[in-house]
């Protein structure tokens, strides 16, 4: 990303294209302590101040708005895109009545022609839908409209998604089902809550054979990683601790090998908890199962503290991560307020999406400057970060900065280093800014007492908070309902406060990022009072 030369134009360029499928991480690696790194930074900052065009991403580029029927065509296409893949697409299987009922007195008929002794109106109909977008923008220049409304007239179009929950008819015989759960990627608060609810719900359906696959996809192919038998008793208390009861890992994952293993283990339902990389793997596993005509349901549960999955209100773990981040911000604030010319600097996770930094800044109310990957900023010179810090020190005696790990990466040296999953390894933006500030105040001869806090893994290696625990509970339960309903290649999410199922490709076609023209980012700027640093 780069900055526009004219500050009034408020021109941003689009986020950088994905470094690989399903990832938008910016590939950067440099030694933040080295002088050459600082020189590289200075060179890049100069380059970054060249004018660039507005190019906020819009998913509507492929629509021909001159066609009078463009809305109808869009909706037909939408229905196709959001249709949930079902095992009957490839296999001729007849459904049977669901044993899932919360009425103890109800008897389940043997087949769909029989009548239950007592009816239960607790099922979700396959034609139930939830509305994804609820704002009608009057103008494309309204805040947030650019990313949401359609065409030159900024039309609103109904975008319905499938409601999640138990179905009256199921496609698996619970007594014969073997269900498996796997947790992949990095840790996230709430993994154990989801595992626990999946087991509880399977148990209510009558499934006895439930196993955990250890250490992510690795558990499918690495010798010595035996399945963990799971039951209501085994998982009873696992939500009291953070982490994953089953272990997590990055990397690995030959899809064919994983599906061989699914077949060899006779798994009928696989619940895959993870972020965008994990879901890319889940989709590939689902497609390979279809190619082999296997009766297997692959169900994702989106997990990421970064909140970078498309279409969802939020992913589980995010709220807890923000809450934990507040502790670090509060400590930095206490240090900064108590020092002569104190500067508190907190770096928070968020590789390509600044949601944690934005929400933590907004909720703490203690931050003067929030820096995120989606919004470019200048450090030196007129209107730069350092100049603003000087002003804050002068006016109120101290300053507070919250920076996301992916922020300002375009100013640093790039490398091709990646982690085991192929995610680019980022440079330490926090240490870099820390050094810039220290050097600057030394150079201008103004004392400044900078305290840098990087809580790193502390924001995610913890137990889910109350709101995440509820989200995990619902997502876990719905994942099981989705599998029994015969869906596969779907994920369980919350959209516009309603719980839904979404086809996996739709949620990972790009990473979700903070829209610099959204009301939420504007609210953050209103709260911090920071200028635009351009
Ligand atoms: N495109 C892909 N196709 C198949 N498997 C993938 C793909 N991308 C990632 N994976 C696998 O998914 C697993 C998790 O991926 P990754 O490490 O990127 O974490 P993630 O799911 O994105 O979660 P996090 O939010 O913690 O980054 C890894 O085992 C990785 O090998
Ligand atoms: O050290 P690890 O496990 O690779 O995780 C770090 C990454 O995981 C995340 O928490 C989630 O993707 C990122 O914010 C962060 O960059
Ligand atoms: Mg990821």
UniProtKB/TrEMBL annotation:
Spell out the activity regulation: Allosterically activated by AMP.
Where does this protein act, in terms of pathway? Carbohydrate degradation; glycolysis; D-glyceraldehyde 3-phosphate and glycerone phosphate from D-glucose: step 3/4
GO CC terms, sorted: cytoplasm
Q: What is its EC number?
A: 2.7.1.11
Q: What class of enzyme is it?
A: transferase
Location in or out of the cell: Cytoplasm
Q: List ligand-binding residues for ATP.
A: 186, 250-251, 275-278
Q: Which UniProt keywords apply?
A: Allosteric enzyme, ATP-binding, Cytoplasm, Glycolysis, Kinase, Magnesium, Metal-binding, Nucleotide-binding, Transferase
Query: Which residues are catalytic?
Result: 306
A GO molecular function held by the record = ATP binding
Identify the residues that the record assigns to the Phosphofructokinase domain, covering every copy.
Answer: 179-481
Site positions for Important for substrate specificity:
277
Looking at the UniProt entry, the stretches that span the membrane are none
Q: Which domain of life is it from?
A: Eukaryota
The keyword DNA damage is annotated on this UniProt entry = no
Q: Which family does it belong to?
A: Belongs to the phosphofructokinase type A (PFKA) family. PPi-dependent PFK group II subfamily. Atypical ATP-dependent clade 'X' sub-subfamily.
The protein's matches in NCBIfam families, at most eight in alphabetical order, are given as: PRK06830.1
Subunit structure, as described in the record: Homotetramer.
* The protein's name in its UniProt record: ATP-dependent 6-phosphofructokinase
Encoding gene, per UniProt annotation: PFK
